[in-house]
Amino acid sequence: MRLYPPVPMYLREAVKPETFRGRSVPKGAQIVISPWHLHRHERLWDRPDEFDPTHWDTKEGRESSRKAYIPFSLGARVCPGSAFAMTEGTLILAMILRHYRVALVPGREPVPAAQLTVRGRDGIWLSLTPRHTEPPA
């Protein structure tokens, strides 16, 4: 979600004149918010282009997650389905991983493509190998 947020960028309209990083933003100006870039900003994230689940365990990671982690936007315009998406995604992933080992198909590494949402340009090719489980006693 940090490296590949579902929506890579979105627009917001300034409701009043504002100064942002020394620049005037007039009322009505269109502002591009890019979680894709924010989630990779080297001033905010240690090793911003790496996938490291332990990153969230550090003081810096927790601080960045509070201030600069917005995969579903924030505030009044937050995606109404964000909680459902996170719950659904976790549940589906757990069900798949319970029964299968998942690996990328060699030579078919996904290339991210930003359209309305982020997806694999040519899809995401995975191989599923059944896990061998003991039958219930």
Topology at a glance:
Elements: E1 10-13, E2 18-20, E3 23-25, E4 30-33, H1 35-38, H2 59-68, H3 82-99, E5 100-104, E6 112-114, E7 118-120, E8 126-130
Antiparallel strand pairs: 1-4, 2-3, 5-8, 6-7
Number of strands: 8
Question: Low-confidence runs (pLDDT<50, min 5 residues)?
Answer: none
Largest sheet: 2 strands, antiparallel
Large-scale geometry: elongated
Proportion in helices: 10-25%
Biggest β-sheet: strands ordered side by side in the sheet: 1-4
Order of helices and strands: EEEEHHHEEEE
**CA radius of gyration:** 19 Å
Structural write-up:
It is a single chain. By secondary structure, this protein is an alpha+beta fold. It folds into two domains: about 80 residues, no CATH class; about 55 residues, no CATH class. The chain is built from three helices and eight strands. The strands form four sheets. The protein has a two-stranded antiparallel sheet. The protein has a two-stranded antiparallel ribbon with strand order 2-3. A hairpin with a 2-residue loop joins strand 2 and strand 3. The longest helix is centred in the middle third of the chain and has 18 residues. The radius of gyration is 19 Å and the shape is elongated. The model has no long low-confidence stretch (mean pLDDT about 90).
Q: What's this entry about, in short?
A:
By secondary structure, this protein is of the alpha+beta class. It has helices at 35-38, 59-68, 82-99, and strands at residues 10-13, 18-20, 23-25, 30-33, 100-104, 112-114, 118-120, 126-130.
